[in-house]
Structure prediction request, 423 residues.
Amino acid sequence: MRTSYERLTLLLRTEIFKLAGAFLLMYVASIFQKPLFAQDYSRIEVGAQGTALRLMDRVDGTDQKGGFGLRATYNLSRILALDAEGDFLPGVSREGEQRGGREFTVLAGAKAGWRWRRVALFVKARPGLTNFSNIVRVEFTPCGGRECFDVFPGGHINHFALDLGGTLEINTTRRTFLRFDFGEMLVRYRDREYPVPGDPGAYLFAPGIIGKSLLVTAGISYRFGSIEDRPVPITGTRKWEVGAQYGVLSMGRADLSNYPSFVPIAIGDDKSFGGRLTYNFNRWLSMDGIINRFYTDRAVGDAQRGGKILQGAFGPKAGLRTSRYGVFVKADLGFLSYGGVRDNYFPPFPTTRLTHFAFSYGAVLEYYPSRRTMLRFDLGHTIGFYGAQTVVAPQSPPFNGDFRDPGFRDSGMEFMTGVGWRF
Prediction:
C-alpha cells in the first residue's frame, strides 16, 4: 500500500508531466521564430472525426465508448481560432443517477498555437455540454391496490463540460489536413434531488462531483475560402502587470444534510474576488501570483472543509502575445484555506481554519484594448489535497469517541475573468 505522501508525489508527477509537453512546445517555438508562421491557412475549416472517450470517476471508472462527430473552426488569425465540435457516442453506459445510456457532447471555445509548413500544434480550452440519454427517474407504480414510487431508467440529463488539451494538425494538401486531438474533459455532475411522489418534503439525493474524462479524436478537415499567408507579428510586453478578478470555483463541499454519516460530497459553485500580480520574463514566459477571497459561505462543514475559502496560487504562464491578444497555458501550486472547519463535536461546536495544498492548470486568454490595459479570462482544473484529520467527539453514538477522518483528493473547475494594468 502506498502512503499518503507517495500517492501525492505520484499524482503531482502525472499532472506536471501533462504540462511539460505544452511548455516545451512553447519554448521550441520561441527558438524557431522565423519559420513559426510559414503555413498557409483559411478563415473557415470543417471536418469529420472518430471519437474515443473514457469516463474516469466514481460513477463508473471503467466506462469507455467510441463514436463520431463533426467540427467547425473559424481562424481569427494564424495563431488563434474559435473551435467547435459535436460528438455522438452510441455506446451504452450503465444507467445511474448522474449518467447512463448514449452520450452527445457539444464543445466550443478557443484554440491557439503555432503553424509550420507541414505541421501545426495548438492548445485548447473549450466549455460545453454533454447529454446522457438514460438516467434514473422517480415514478408512481401500482402497488397492491395503491400507488407506490419506484426508481426507473429512461430520463435525459445535461451536464456542463470543459475540455482542456492539445491538437496536432498534419497537412496532406494545401486545402486538406489530418487533425488529432487529445484532452481531459471535466464534467460537472450537479447535485440531484428526486422528489418522492405523495410525500411532501421527502426526496432521494444524488451527490454531485467533478468527473474526469479522457477525450481523443482523429479526423480529416477541409479549408474553405481564400488561402492567406500574411504573417502575425509577435510583440513584447511590459515587465509587470497588476489586476483584479472575479472567479467561480465548482468543487466538492461538505454537506450538513449528510450528518452524521460524515460523507463530505456535494457540488457547489463558490464565488470570489481577488487580485493578481504578474512578472513577464520575456514575450513568451511569465510568472503569475493570485489571491482570491471567496464570499460564498459554505456554512459549517466537516473536519476537512467548511466556511469561507481563501485561495492562493503561484506558477508559470507560457504562450504567445500579439499587439491585441495573448494566449497561454499555466500551472500553479498553492493552497485552499477553509475558515469554518468543524473538528470538535462538543457544544458549542467550535470551528477552526484549516489549509490544504492545491495544484491547478489550464489556459489563459488576454485581450489588450490599449498598450497599458488588458482583459483576462482563465479556465482551469483545480485539485485539492485534503489530509487526514483527528476529530474530537463524544463517547456516545454515533461517534463513540474521537475518530480519524481520512484524507482524500477532489477536483474542481475554475473560471476567472478580470482587468489588468501593464507597467
